[in-house]
Amino acid sequence: MTRSNASEEAKAVVRRNTEEVQGSGNFDVFEELFADDFVDHTPQPNCTPDKDGARGLYHALRAAFPDFHADIHWQVADGDLVTTYKTYHGTHEGVFLGVPPTGRKIHFETVDAMRVRNGKIAEHWGVANLFSLMQQLGAFSGGETQARGTE
């Protein structure tokens, strides 16, 4: 298989995760796409850096934002490493990071890199704009005093 074909296949795996697991809540596909030894190098708050942690995060997002989905703006791959820039959207209908449901429509940007090994997501690095999300949920106004309280 050429490097170009490997990159395209890796991008397809990551896109399936974004669309079918995160966007549609299909956790059978999660089990198919994530390696058992998956490592998250940048886990989100209250999540472990492994497959169980990723599964828990996805369940928490789907519970808090039942219509959670992403618009993928672009993807690039270098061999088995796929970088994706996307904007997540949803309606806040469940508790998220301690914030009770507000009914607000939200959106926040994310850039992540996922290594795909043997057709499965094996590693993740990412940055999500949780500051913007928490502002939209009314968790804080974004001033210095409120930001210090989130440390």
UniProtKB/TrEMBL annotation:
Gene3D superfamilies: 3.10.450.50
InterPro entries for this protein: Cyclase_SnoaL-like, NTF2-like_dom_sf
Pfam families from the UniProt entry: SnoaL (PF07366)
Domain of life (superkingdom): Bacteria
BP GO annotations: polyketide metabolic process
SUPFAM superfamilies xrefs: NTF2-like
Protein name in the entry: Ester cyclase
Naturally occurring in which organism (per UniProt): Paraburkholderia sediminicola
Lineage of the organism: Bacteria, Pseudomonadati, Pseudomonadota, Betaproteobacteria, Burkholderiales
